[in-house]
Write a structure and sequence with these properties.
Largest sheet: 2 strands, parallel
Number of domains: 2
Strand content: 5-15%
Oligomer: single chain
Shape: globular
Radius of gyration: 21 Å
Distance between the termini: 44 Å
Number of strands: 10
Structural class: alpha+beta
Strand order of the largest sheet: 1-5
Number of helices: 16
C-alpha cells in the first residue's frame, strides 16, 4: 500500500462513485437510461448526510471540532462560504434570528446549528455536558462542496440546491484552520481562494487547484471528470477515500494508489450515490432572452464557431461518449493539471447550466462566458465578429 502523509489530507471534492458496479448512464445511442427511484432516494440521504466515517480524520487528526467550538461563529462560517439549510431550522429559531435575538458572532451558535444538522455538508455530534452543548465529533459530506442554498432566508441561508457547486466555499481556508496541517501547506491552501480545490496535492505534492464543478446535468454523460479518468463513481470513490478521508477502499494502479479499509464504509454506498447525482438536473436558464440573438448564436455554435464538433448536442454537449480526449494544446488549456492525472488529457465539458457556474475552464481562468468565447475565437482562429461572439454567448446562457 502506498504511504500517505495524513497531515496532507484535506477536504472534499466533486461528484461520483460506484466501484464494481457499472456506471453506464446511457444506451448505445447515447440516450439516458431510466433511473431507479429507490436508489435515488437512498442516494440523496448519502449525498447530504453520510460522512463515510471520516470523523476519524476530521476530529481525531485534524481536530476541527476544537477549532469550530472555540472560534468559528456563524458569521465566520458564512464568510468562508459555508451554507445553512433553512428547512432544518425550527420556526422559533428563524423568528429569533429575524428579531436579532441570536448571536451570530458566538461559536456556541454554530454548535447549535450543527446540533440541528443545519450546516450544509458538515455533520456534528453534540453532547450535553454540565448543562451545556459540546461539539465532540465532526465530519463532512459530499454536499459540502456540491450543494448551495437559494439565499431565500438570508445570504448563505436558504433551501438546499443539491448539485450546485459551492463557488463561495473557501475549502483551503477552512482546512487550514486545523492545527494538524503544516504551516507551509496552510499557506498553499489559503492561496486557492473561494470555489477552488486541489484534489491531488496530498497524493503528489504539486499545486494546481481546479474549480469545484457542479454535480448536476450528468445523466447520460460518460466519464464525468475533467480528465475522464473514470465514471462518476470512480471520482466519488477517489474523493470519499483520499480527500474526504472516509473509511473505504480505492485502488488505481495508474496513479499508484491502493487504499483499503476494514470495514469499508464507502463502496456499498456508491451505486445509490451515483444514481442520485444522475437525477440532479441542470437549473433552468433565467427568462428574458433575446430570441433572435439566441437563434443566431446557435447557428454560430453549429457552424463557424465549430463548437458542436466536440460539444455534440445529441450527446449531452460533449464528445466523451465517442471516446475522444484532447491534448491541452488543442484548445489552449494549461497542461499542468492534466499532467498530474492518468490520462494526461482533458475531456470536453458538457454544457449544462452554464449561466450558473462561472468561472469557467477547469482552472477558472475564464471569468465569464464572453471570456470563454474570446479564448476559443483566438486559439482556434475562428474569425468571429463582435456580433457573432455576443450571439454565441446569448445561446450558451440558455443551455
Amino acid at each position: 500500500m502506498r504511504r500517505r502523509d495524513s497531515s496532507l489530507v484535506m477536504a472534499l471534492g466533486l461528484v461520483a462513485v460506484l466501484a464494481a458496479c457499472s456506471d453506464s448512464t446511457s444506451d448505445a445511442q447515447g440516450r439516458p437510461r431510466p433511473l431507479n427511484p429507490t436508489l435515488v432516494a437512498a442516494g440523496q440521504e448519502i449525498f447530504r448526510f453520510n460522512t463515510f466515517g471520516n470523523e476519524v480524520f476530521w476530529t481525531d487528526t485534524a481536530r476541527l471540532h476544537e477549532v469550530i467550538a472555540s472560534s468559528v461563529s456563524p458569521a465566520t462560517a458564512l464568510s468562508v462560504g459555508l451554507k445553512v439549510d433553512a428547512n432544518a431550522l425550527p420556526q422559533a429559531v428563524k423568528d429569533a434570528i429575524v428579531a436579532g435575538q441570536v448571536d451570530l458572532q458566538d461559536p456556541a451558535t454554530t454548535v447549535t446549528l450543527l446540533k440541528l444538522n443545519a450546516v450544509v455538508g458538515v455533520r456534528g455530534t453534540v453532547a450535553t455536558v454540565g448543562g451545556q452543548d459540546r461539539l465532540v465529533r465532526v465530519g463532512i459530506t459530499c454536499a459540502l462542496c456540491h450543494s448551495s442554498v437559494d439565499n431565500s432566508f438570508a445570504p448563505g441561508i436558504g433551501k438546499r440546491q443539491d448539485g450546485w457547486a459551492n463557488t463561495d466555499l473557501n475549502v483551503g481556508a477552512i482546512v487550514a484552520l486545523s492545527p494538524a496541517i503544516p504551516d507551509g501547506l496552510k499557506a498553499i491552501m489559503r492561496s486557492w481562494g473561494p470555489g477552488k480545490y486541489d484534489p491531488r496535492i496530498n497524493e503528489d505534492g504539486k499545486n494546481t487547484p481546479i474549480v469545484i464543478p457542479p454535480a448536476y446535468g450528468l445523466h447520460g454523460v460518460a466519464k464525468e471528470t475533467y480528465t475522464a479518468e473514470g465514471p462518476v463513481s470512480y471520482w466519488n470513490a477517489y474523493v470519499a477515500v483520499t480527500q474526504m478521508h472516509g473509511r473505504g477502499t480505492f485502488r488505481d494502479a495508474r496513479l499508484g494508489i491502493d487504499v483499503k479499509a476494514d470495514p469499508d464504509l464507502v463502496t456499498a454506498l456508491l451505486p445509490a450515490l451515483a444514481e442520485y447525482q444522475f437525477s440532479l438536473e441542470a437549473p433552468r436558464a433565467p427568462g428574458g432572452v433575446d430570441a433572435p440573438m439566441v437563434s443566431r448564436g446557435e447557428a454560430v455554435f453549429r457552424g463557424q464557431g465549430r463548437c458542436a464538433a466536440c460539444h455534440m448536442p445529441d450527446r449531452q454537449f460533449t464528445d466523451i461518449g465517442t471516446g475522444a480526449l484532447h491534448e491541452p494544446s488543442e484548445t489552449g488549456m494549461d497542461p499542468a493539471y492534466a499532467a498530474r492525472t492518468s490520462t494526461k488529457r482533458y475531456r470536453t465539458t458538457p454544457l449544462r447550466g452554464l449561466w450558473q457556474h462561472a468561472p469557467y475552464f477547469h482552472d477558472g481562468t475564464a471569468a465569464t462566458l464572453d471570456a470563454v468565447v474570446t479564448h476559443y475565437d483566438s486559439t482556434l482562429h475562428l474569425g468571429l465578429s463582435a456580433q457573432q461572439r455576443a450571439d454565441l454567448v446569448a445561446y450558451l446562457k440558455t443551455l
